[in-house]
Amino acid sequence: MYTISCESTVDLNWSHLEERGLPVIAYTYIFDGVEYFDDLRKGDGLKLFYEKLTSGKQPSTSLINTERYVDFFRPFVEQGDLLHIAFGSGLSQSCANAIAAAEILKKQYPDRKIYVVDSLCACVGYGLFTDMIADRRDSGASIDQLYEWAMANRLNVIHQFYSTTLTYFRRSGRISGPAALIGNILKLCPIMHLDGNGKIVAYSKVMSESKAMERTLAEVARKIADGKDYNGKLWIGHSDCIKSAQKMYDALHAEYPNADIRIYDIGPVIASHCGPGTVAIFFCGESRSK
Question: Of 41, 91, 92, 112, which residue is 20 to 30 A from 201 by alpha carbon distance?
Answer without folding.
Answer: 41
